[in-house]
Amino acid sequence: MNYSKEKQIAIAAVTAAAQLCQRVQGEKGPQTLNKADTSPVTVADFGAQAVICQALAEFFPDDPVIGEEDAAMLGQPELVGVRTQIIQQVQEILPTASLQNVIDWINHGNGRVAPRYWTLDPIDGTKGFIRGDQYAIALALVEEGQLKLGILACPAFPLENGTTGLIFLAIRGQGSVEIPLKGGTPKAIKVDNSANFAELCRIESVESVHSDRAFQTALDQSLGLKSPAKQMDSLAKYGAIARGDAHLYTRIPLPQFKDKKENIWDHGPGVIIVEEAGGIVTDLDGKCLDFSVGAKLSNNRGILTTNGTIHQQVLEAIKKQDYK
């Protein structure tokens, strides 16, 4: 399969969602709510999920979608204003949308793993979005447990000409490309295959709880990394590695979170984009990430993403540092 229809629909959907997110930012700033796990969620998260799920439900009705958001909390009486904002934002794209439409579209993302399904994070890096920094609209297609398509819309991603906004796209066996968010010609991207650790760039999350920085510091020293890590919110980090702006990214669970498993929507699109650009993504034991078991990467621990050239050396260094 060349996935041409999936590609066309995915690009249109994430572009519309990115426009919704930018509009929310430009109006009064995103109003923030707290989910049950205390993580933040905004009008834009819900609106973006509704817009993307509407498109997937229309064009691929048999495909489940495993998305991050759920509309249950929107039923609270005190959130009537938030519901109104979400509907208004969605109606900018889908003028006839009703409240029930929007709720149904958001909840279309409550699917389960199937032989073919989509993962969706309508805003990966919500804290970055709230701050006005990096975030990504992240969508991936999985068939028989294998990533087949991944797309990231990154409205704040910095470009060399001083502008911002990129879409990263990969289809299995077809390579990775970047496309200006405002439209333009796709450009093939490749990782930077440099292997001199003294000159390499490691990229990490802005949020310190995402990875064990004490272990990482020791690992950096053992590898001979000289430059301080570049910090970036969201799956945009995968785009940075795929286009050669960075070379190494790790998610090393903190000791108190040793049993924590990563969400599939937090990595799926980025994984295939890096792999199709020539890089490698595994867990900390060198195992491929398993997208066949559910909403969590239950069969993996941590994440290691590299330009490929240095991957085995980093795995050996992690083992030598005795990460357990």
Task: Explain what the structure shows.
This protein is an alpha+beta fold and 324 residues long. 32% of the residues lie in helices and 22% in strands. The chain contains nine helices and 14 strands. The protein has a seven-stranded mixed β-sheet with strand order 3-4-5-6-7-8-9, with helices on both faces. Helix 1 (4-27) runs antiparallel to helix 2 and helix 2 (43-59) crosses helix 3. The longest helix is centred in the first third of the chain and has 24 residues, at 4-27. The relative contact order is 0.13. The mean pLDDT is 95.
What would you say about this model in short?
By secondary structure, this protein is α+β, with helices and mostly antiparallel strands. The protein has nine helices and 14 strands. It has helices at 4-27, 43-59, 80-91, 99-107, 126-131, 213-223, 236-242, 268-276, 311-320, and strands at 32-34, 40-42, 65-67, 116-124, 136-143, 146-158, 164-171, 176-180, 187-189, 203-204, 230-231, 248-251, 280-282, 303-306.
Shape call: globular
How do the strands line up in the largest sheet? Answer: 3-4-5-6-7-8-9
Helix and strand pattern:
HEEHEHHEHEEEEEEHEHEHEEH
Structural class: alpha+beta
Uncertain runs: none
Distance between the termini: 41 Å
Biggest beta-sheet profile: 7 strands, mixed
- Summed up, the helix count is 9
Give the overall pLDDT as a whole number. Answer: 95
Relative helix content: 25-40%
Radius of gyration: 19 Å
Question: Got a strand count?
Answer: 14
Strand content: 15-25%
